[in-house]
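Appendix C reproduces, verbatim, an entry submitted by the partner laboratory led by Prof. M.T., so that reviewers can inspect both the input and the predicted structure.
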Amino acid sequence: MSEKPFDIKHRCYQFSKETVLFISTVKYDRIYHSLFDQLLRSATSIGANIIEAKSGSSTKDFKNFYIIALKSANETKYWLCLIRDTILIEEKDQINKMITEADELSKIIASIIINLKK
């Protein structure tokens, strides 16, 4: 991954973009399509929910979008691990980097949620 943006919105966008580009280069059997579809949906949902939070009508609404983003980040880690350990074993290093980034996004988002409760 390239240098990570400081802003969470930009960092999530970069992660979505890299996930889309990664999936576009992978050759896989049709039977695995749903795994990659789920990965695409969860990975792009992280940033989409962060952006949605900006237009939330209340602090509670804002927090709920961040909670959904956190769930999506955790789901993304699940799909990446499953794909790494079953289909793309030879792509392990690249997928591990993506898992690390998804984990860092999870931690940042969780921290934001915790600070909203204060």
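The chain has four helices and no strands. Additional entries are available on request from the coordinating office.
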